Amino acid sequence: MFQITRSAPVYDVVIIGSGAGGGTVTKVLADLGISVALLEAGPMLHPEKDFKMLKWPYEYPHRGALDGGASYFGHGRAFGFFSAHAGGWELYGEPYTVAEGSKFNWFRSRIVGGRTNHYGRISLRYADYDLKPYSRDGIGTDWPISYEDIAPYYDKAESFIGVTGSKEGIRSAPDGVFQKCPPPRVHEVLIKKAADKLGIPCIPNRLAVITQPTNGRPACHYCGECGRGCIPASNYSSSQVQVFPAMKTGKVTLITDAMARELITNDEGKVTAVSYIDKTTRTEKQIKCRTVVLAASCCESTRLLLNSKGKGHENGLGNSSGTVGKYLTDNTGFGLGARIPALEGMPRHNSDGMGGAHLYMPWWLWDKKTDFPRGYHVELGGGHNMPGIGSFTGVCAQHEGYGDSLKKAIYEDFGTHVSFAGRGEMIPNKDTYCEIDPNVVDKYGIPVLKFHFKWTDAEYKQVEHMEKTFTDIIETMGGTVVKRNRPVEDKISVGGDIIHEVGAIRMGDDPKTAPLNKYCQSNDVKNVFVADAAPFVTNPDKNPTLTIVALAWRTAEYLADEMRKGNV
Amino acid sequence: MTRRDVLSKIAAAAMAGPVGLEAAQHVHEAAAAAANTAGGIYKPKALTQHEFETLKTLCEIIVPGASKGGAAEFIDLLSSQNPEMAAIYTGGLAWLDEAMKRAYHMDFLTAKADQKTEMLDRIAYRRNRTPELSPGITFFSWARRMTVDAYYTSAAGIKDVGYLGNRAIKEFKVPQEAIDYAVKRSPFA
Question: Which of A30, A283, A385, B145 could form a cystine bridge with A251, CB 3.0-4.6 A?
């Protein structure tokens, strides 16, 4: 069997995953002087080399279409060639399966920093009522914590990573510690005027981008392409903002290309080591630990627990409740765009700004009656964005022809489109969960996840509401929406598409129904903690990353405290 | 990329501050690219010389200036890496020459300008789709799309369309004249 050499060190904490949750725990524990080992399934990140910041398409012979023009044949890279991720919807040799009748897409990025290297940086606090949904509308389950419990950690998270925004006093979008948001772009000015007319709040965006020097990081240089990664770290990525600085304390041992396979327990049921595959040699290794923090992403952490089977925990570790894998949700997604005639022929100027909108619309009907539960927020798109492969394919298809008239059509079209994307709350349902597929293993021999996913009327009605709202805004701006009669099932995003998977190892007050206590500590195995989005009880209409950071911070402090007291 | 462009990039790199290293890398790549095309003669990798010349002429008609954007080279390069792409172009260009010979007894390259445009006016629009023209229309749609992509991702095309970003700046501002322009033309005027 597996041998552990006598001299192998025992780490106080082994953290699995270096994304928003793992990066935060690493930083907080290292600052407290606790020695940690950080396992990352992907390779090391080298921002200077890996990030395509400020690159032009013509610096690459394929211009971004990939070798052989793969993007023309439907084999493009997710989010395009220039995106900073190291992964995609499919990873070669690391499959997942989807149950018959379900659709689900799972985005993974295997690299130090995980999905925080490329994500949208939208940083929204959950509202007080988001954490007590059952008390409010009788649907689902309340969180075991309240806004007051998490608010101090939102403060810490925002202060440390840096988030733009403005004090607005809107209950659905609690104010935080904000840096100044740059001014709205021209199309955003028009959108705001339309929103004002329709009674929809449209406020400075809350992005994890710094607009003033912060902790040695320079302010944003406004190249508009946060998704490519930021070499000077003027936006938040766990790799650059947390992991790399934490490594300077000397308390962090980073182990890359380490794919966690199983948690090893002793006779008392405590975790003593993490078994992982060293991808560079495809050999199994073990690392000893006093405590372990799962931060591999909601679904990977779930997979790891379910794959850690043994005597007394035949259904997976920490799963006496039988709920690990259940209550999985994504946010709903729907998008609509249109050409705005008022923007045609606009004097050219640099509209890049931050990598993302400078305004957004928080949910505004939280105290009104709607025909669906909960709500959504609205993200904005538009501007004179850097031309890339496919930027004018729509104009070509519409205008047809060639020559000077085609060029004129392209010139006039550039920068005239606006788009709206809704991101809303999904209600957990019994048909949406993940489990281990008994028939399939990945290329490391690790059993893979099988997804079951179903939207219900709650989400469909919300998406219909989004469509009506976006149509109203566009028409108020003088644009025209091309009416397309499609069933709502085709309008709503595919489960997983929004990459906001949460909830599969949730926290709660009752160990019979929730695997984790209110500090995200396993009820069954006291030295196991979860610090990604898996503990979330619900998936409110706010992007989850800021809450991952805040909760992970809280969990790390609790872990350190329990360790000091000798409880773990 | 001319020597002057390379030098101006170096100057920009020196000014860039926190992103200086990155800009320096650009200069390095730009210089390498300039050296690559030194001499100015591109040898097609996937297409025959005749096919390449035909494509180049076609691209230039689709987007005047396309050759400055390296459109034919872009298509040839991708074709050399992908047989599926190559087939679209070798097949399409052969179709075009055949159609020209049937109509004018000359291939595309040697035909007169008005004969070229007469043919393109047929295949540049979906509404003309007949069993006879269908392959040409499909091919033209590919050539138009990729010529446009190549041109507008080149330095010349980016300048032409008026994109002024992708640079490090200290403060983001929105020109009032641009706001006024749009608001005046909007329903909010």
Answer: A30
Tokens of A338: 């249109």
CB contact under 8 Å between A389 and B149, yes or no, is yes
Q: What is the pTM of this model?
A: 0.94
Interchain proximity A231–B22, CB inside 8 Å: yes
Q: How many helices (H) and strands (E) does chain A have?
A: 13, 17
Judge if A259 and A208 occupy the same domain. no
The partner residue sitting opposite B18, judged by closest CB among A67, A221, A391, is A221
Is A407's CB within 8 Å of B63's CB? yes
Q: Which of residues 139-168 of A touch B (CB under 8 A)?
A: none
- The CA distance from A68 to the nearest CA of chain B, in Å, is 4
The total number of structural domains that make up chain A: 3
The answer to the question of residue A445 being in a domain is no
Residue B38 at interface with chain A, using a CB cutoff of 8 Å: no
Q: Please indicate, yes or no, if residue A468 is contained in any of the structural domains.
A: yes
Within this chain, do residues A477 and A539 fall inside the same structural domain, yes or no?
A: no
Enumerate the β-bridge partners of residue A288.
Answer: A10, A273
Compute φ and ψ for B85, nearest 5 degrees.
Answer: -70, -45
Question: Does a structural domain hold residue A111?
Answer: yes
User: Domain limits at A69?
Assistant: 48-80
- Mutation choice for A interface testing from B9, B15, B19, B89 by most A CBs within 10 A: B19
Residues 88-127, chain B, touching A (beta carbon < 8 A): 120, 124-126
Q: Please answer yes or no on whether B165 and A350 come within 8 Å at the CB atom.
A: yes
Of A63, A223, A347, the CB nearest to B74: A63
- Listed in sequence order, the DSSP H helices in A32-108 are 47-50
| Chain B residues within an 8 Å CB radius of A65 | 78, 149
Contact yes or no for A424/A374 (Cβ under 8 A): yes
Q: Indicate whether A359 and A463 sit together in one domain.
A: yes
Residues A531 and A552 in one domain: yes
| Interface A:B, Cβ pairs < 8 A | 214
Task: Determine the Cα angle at A475 with ends A473 and A478, to 5°.
Answer: 115
State whether residue A29 is helix, strand or coil.
Answer: helix
Clarify whether residues A187 and A297 are in a common domain: no
Contact (CB, 8 A) for A278 and A256: no
Residue A127, domain member (yes or no): no
Residues of B in contact with A180 (CB under 8 A): none
**DSSP result, A148-198:** HHHHHHHHHHHHHH--B-----BTTB---S-BPPPPPPHHHHHHHHHHHHH
What gap in Å lies between CA A477 and CA A351, rounded to an integer?
A: 19
